[in-house]
Amino acid sequence: MRYLDDARVSRTDVSEDLAALGPWTRRVVIATAAWSLGELPFEIWLSPTVTEMAACVVGKLLFVALVYFVLSGSRAAGIGYAFLCTIGLMAMTFGLPAEYRVFPLGFALSSVECLLKATAFVCLVSSGVVPGED
After folding, report:
1. Is the distance from CB of 117 to CB of 32 less than 8 angstroms?
2. What does the pLDDT average to over 120-133?
3. Residue 6: its pLDDT value, please?
4. Where are the domains of the chain?
5. CB 104 within 8 A of CB 3
6. Is the C or the N end of the chain the one with fewer CB within 10 Å?
7. How far is CA 70 from CA 39, 83, 85, 106, 118, in A?
8. What is the pLDDT of residues 8-42, one digit of tens each?
9. Which UniProt keywords apply (predicted)?
10. How far apart are CA 11 and CA 15, in angstroms?
11. What CA–CA distance (Å, rounded) separates 91 from 94?
């Protein structure tokens, strides 16, 4: 609540401070995008129809665009990114045991993606927390 208590801080200072990402958060966000693009050939390989292939490609392009906006400092994009990471994490986590039995390579890929998305979510949520501040 330091911004509400300090009348000297302008609104632009607040938005710039909240939009700034730390170096580890930036690395994890970039890693999720890189991993997502690295997974694309496997997803295309396993897609049974051309429509599903196109949906995979469009989805990855939209995700990379969202990552770009997060890295450029958009607060709305950061919230959307954190939300999508959480939803994707929940959706993938419940399917991991079945994926392990059916497709072990997919299980390994999904496990790394879950770890990256969970780390990105924690980094984004904790980026505004300042230790020792009440």
Report:
1. yes
2. 75
3. 44
4. 21-126
5. no
6. C
7. 21, 12, 13, 27, 16
8. 444 444 445 445 788 888 999 999 999 999 989 98
9. Membrane, Transmembrane, Transmembrane helix
10. 6
11. 6
Q: Which residues contact 50 (CB under 8 A, 6 or more apart)?
A: none
pLDDT given for residue 42 in this prediction: 86
Summarised one tens digit per residue, pLDDT across range 63-89 is: 999 999 999 988 899 999 999 999 999
What pTM does this model have? 0.76
Model confidence at 132, pLDDT cuts 50, 70, 90, reads low
CA distance 120 to 26: 9
Q: Which two tokens stand for residue 28?
A: 């994890």
Q: CA dist 76 to 16, 72, 116, Å?
A: 13, 11, 20
Contacts (Cβ under 8 Å, ≥6 apart) of 57: 40, 44
Token duo for residue 47: 């897609």
